[in-house]
Amino acid sequence: MEDIESILVITEPIFLLIKFCDGDGSKIGEMYEKMDNMLEKIKDVMLDNKYASNYTQPEKMVLSRCVTMTI
User: Fold this and answer.
1) Which residue blocks in the chain are alpha helix, DSSP H?
2) Ranges 5-19, 29-43, 50-64: which has the least confidence
3) How far, in Å, CA of 5 to CA of 8, rounded?
4) In terms of Cα–Cα distance, which of 37, 32, 33, 47 is closest to 12?
5) pLDDT in tens, 36-49
6) Which of 31, 39, 42, 54 shows its CA 20 to 30 Å from the CA of 48?
7) Comparing C-alpha atoms, which of 54, 53, 41 is closest to residue 9?
8) Are 13 and 38 in contact (CB under 8 A)?
9) End-to-end CA distance of the chain
10) CB 64 within 8 A of CB 43
11) What pLDDT is attached to residue 60?
């Protein structure tokens, strides 16, 4: 149960960003700021989490996606 709660806390900022992007209207201008905020939230959550050593994995995924969007 503890593992599930840890993963839910880590993935919540990702879910919220996806939910934001799924709304109506243009989102690209706000999305970059929200992605930065999302990474900060994930980093903060993972500091006190047993998965702290794995922070670089979600960070790399988000940053690679960001690069893909700008091409």
Assistant:
1) 2-21, 28-47, 56-70
2) 50-64
3) 5
4) 37
5) 898 899 888 888 77
6) 31
7) 41
8) yes
9) 41
10) no
11) 84
Report the Cα 42 to chain-centroid distance in Å.
6
Cα–Cα distance, 41 to 67 (Å, whole number): 20
Q: Which of 21-25, 39-43, 65-69 has the lowest mean pLDDT?
A: 65-69
Q: Read off the amino acid at residue 51.
A: Y
What is the structure's pLDDT at 10? 84
Instruction: Give CA–CA dist 14/65, Å, rounded.
Output: 13
Residue indicated by tokens 């109506």: 24
Mean pLDDT of 8-18: 88
